[in-house]
Design goal:
Structural class of chain A: alpha+beta
Largest sheet of chain A: 4 strands, mixed
Number of strands of chain A: 5
Strand order of the largest sheet of chain A: 2-1-3-4
Radius of gyration of chain A: 18 Å
Number of helices of chain A: 7
Oligomer: homodimer
Helix content of chain A: 40-55%
Shape of chain A: globular
Largest interface: A-B, 96 and 96 residues
Strand content of chain A: 15-25%
């Protein structure tokens, strides 16, 4: 089971972010071997960065601290269940577990679009809420770079 | 329809990222009123940042340039169809359209997990590939911050 003190710190960060005028009400800590190795609160409006969610900031700091983009063995604590972008960041980071306090309904209750945004993910490209336009005439040029990367022994693979 | 020159620049960035040893084979440009206002290539391994995808970097730069977290009216060009994290970033950024060259199968062909990672998004929390652990005993404390944010006239809403 997760540690209350880490979730309490995540909640404290969410409060710090709101009271400091930084952004939306979210705070995250990332823990490895009982130690906090990255933390953050939402800074979307204060930094004009749509990606500056608490989880993304904490993951970025944890990677820098551990000097790896593989956070296997780390736990992530967040006051509210992560949005779709942060779920993606969590999956890429390979953190081992996610602890959360408030569920998606709590986001809906305060008017945040988290639940709504998930709907696009199970839709085909052509049915998403914004247009996805294919440019297949440039496939050949684009594929050459994919293959260059895939076939080089020097490139780091995820 | 999208402009070839912008997609060609996205492909060029993907090549620059691979040849410079920065990361995985992706490049992105964001365009407003026929002008590039943000661009980037993947820098995950070179910066130890799991979130440093081309789209995220370009979105961040575009927000800084336009001094807003709302990229409505912008178009995003990327050499390959975005992953789940970047789809989330795209939705939050509110770019108006996404142009891409290579489809998801091209990612599969070079061994990237993009398609696989999407599977978690239509699963309930309890069936995801990593454990999501609820800590409802801290709901009261967490909800107080949500409500503080929601009820304050001074906080910026997304």
């Amino acid at each position: 089971m997760g540690e209350h003190r880490f979730m309490k710190r995540a909640i404290e960060l969410s409060r710090e972010g709101v009271c400091g005028g930084h952004g939306f009400p979210f705070g995250t800590v990332i823990v490895k071997n009982d130690e906090i190795i990255g933390e953050g609160f939402n800074q979307v409006p204060s930094t004009n960065d749509p990606t500056a969610h608490a989880e993304v900031i904490a993951i970025r700091k944890a990677g820098a601290r551990l000097e790896t983009f593989d956070l296997s063995g780390c736990d992530l604590y967040v006051n509210g269940v992560p949005c779709c972008m942060c779920l993606g960041a969590i999956l890429w980071s390979r953190v081992s577990r996610v602890f959360y306090a408030l569920d998606m309904q709590a986001c809906v209750d305060i008017g945040l679009p988290h639940e709504h945004l998930f709907k696009d993910f199970s839709r085909p490209l052509g049915e998403r809420s914004i247009p996805f336009v294919a440019m297949p005439e440039l496939n050949h040029e684009a594929r050459a770079v994919y293959e260059l990367w895939a076939n080089s022994p020097d490139t780091i693979k995820p």
